[in-house]
Amino acid sequence: MVTAGSRGDGMRRANLALVLRTVHREGSRSRAELTEATGLNRSTIADLVGELQRAGLVVERASEAQGRVGRPSPIVEPDPRVIAVAVNPEVDALDIAAIALDGSIVARERLDQSTLLTPERTAELVGIRLDVWRRRPLADSRLIGVGVAVPGPVRASDGLVREAPHLGWTDAALAGLMTDATGLPTHVANDAALGAVAEHLFGAARGVHDVVYLNGGASGIGGAVIVGGMPLGGAGGYAGEFGQNRPGIADPDDRRAPEGVLEDEVSRSLLLRALGIDAADDAALAAALVRSTDPAVRAETDRQRRILATALANAANVMNPAVIVLGGFLAILGELDLAGLDSAVRAQTIPACAEGLRLAAAELGENRLLVGAAEAVFEAALFPAR
């Protein structure tokens, strides 16, 4: 969508994308600030901003600066009418949001599910909801695509969902189904990979080049790695499946699943069982854990934190990240005592890898996966390959 007319000028396309990406990811900037941030001259910035305005991707407003000599530089900001639809199917709910290019969430709904979603039903529900939103609140919006964050490995080359085991999906061509239901181009990726991108660009790992991200959801634990500022995809796009690693468990009494993987031992469902709750979103789960005085609940959270600490130390030793970000119920576990979890991780991390290591909860909270899904749409539709 970022173009340079018919001239085929690759440098101009790259400069258009640079300006648009700057205001999208860094926030509104004056023309003078864009000149400084991009290294382009003032006349080039004015020309590029004008083209982006004509394309309906940015808007300008007068500067609020007062009392300065000379004419204040106009403020350039992303056009909030440009919208990506973000989707996250899970075993207990379908989350849908409309996210604007300026980062605002224009609409968001959580559709609780009593039975497992199929790929077909997921696409159908999104299509139905979007038909309603197109009348209001998206009547004046420009929808450019759908991004789907799926809890399972997704093939990078074509977005085929290879397996979403907790949903019961295998080799699901979800992108085509979603495009048929919405009329929009669709981009499908692993939920944790998208959450990592969101936290890297806008959240707890903003400005950090080397990141390990672990996401805890109703379907288990996923993960992703960012190295040198770039997502680590692996040969097929499946890198980061930390939840499938065999956990190190020092005390045999801590084991709940013989031969189980990390997500069998560190589990949202086990937390709910300890609390005696059938279902809860992350906010309700966090509140219930904080309120509980039941020794059995404390014992379960302590057990899970011990195992999680070892898994995080293993990740730190292998990847040497600057920050490890926890999302979903893992963030809830961590924030029960983040300093204590940090100490437990450092105790099992080699000193060199522990230097400068920071443990953080995802700052985008329940929106992290949806923000990442929207970013996949914006990146594909608006920014040319680097």
UniProtKB/TrEMBL annotation:
Pfam families assigned to the protein according to its UniProt record, in alphabetical order: MarR_2, ROK
InterPro entries xrefs: ATPase_NBD, HTH_MarR-typ, ROK, WH-like_DNA-bd_sf, WH_DNA-bd_sf
Superkingdom of origin organism: Bacteria
Record keywords, A-Z: Kinase, Transferase
HTH marR-type domain segment(s): 18-68
Gene3D superfamilies: 3.30.420.40, Winged helix-like DNA-binding domain superfamily/Winged helix DNA-binding domain
One MF annotation (Gene Ontology) recorded for this entry: DNA-binding transcription factor activity
Family to which this protein belongs: Belongs to the ROK (NagC/XylR) family.
PANTHER family: BIFUNCTIONAL UDP-N-ACETYLGLUCOSAMINE 2-EPIMERASE_N-ACETYLMANNOSAMINE KINASE (PTHR18964:SF149), ROK (REPRESSOR, ORF, KINASE) FAMILY (PTHR18964)
Protein name: Sugar kinase
Species per Swiss-Prot/TrEMBL record: Microbacterium testaceum (Aureobacterium testaceum)
Lineage: Bacteria, Bacillati, Actinomycetota, Actinomycetes, Micrococcales
